[in-house]
Amino acid sequence: MEMPKMTERDRLADLETRQRKLTEDLETARRALRGKYAAMVNDVPIEKLTEREFRELLTQAIRVGGSAALTALKKLPPVS
Predict the structure, then answer these.
(1) From which residue to which does any coiled coil extend (predicted)?
(2) For 50-78, what is each residue's pLDDT tens digit?
(3) Within 1-80, where are the H helices?
(4) pTM of the predicted model, to two decimals?
(5) Domain extent for 36
(6) Any residues with CB less than 8 A from the CB of 40 and at least 6 apart, and which?
(7) Are 39 and 13 in a shared domain?
């Protein structure tokens, strides 16, 4: 027996349902990854930075990309 074809309206509703599910899955994965990164902060002495410096540092590193940010920072002379 052959299944009846979906109407365009049914197909659209199905696609919208799938899209919502994918969006939820994406947000769940994003939250999990951000939580993992946030947990790493506990092991780093960030209290040496102001909140503003910390936020700016992360924002700029994300903006230029992690590799570019690390390359630039490693070129700085060591602090005495």
Answers:
(1) 5-32
(2) 999 999 999 999 999 999 999 999 999 99
(3) 8-41, 51-64, 66-74
(4) 0.68
(5) 8-44
(6) none
(7) yes
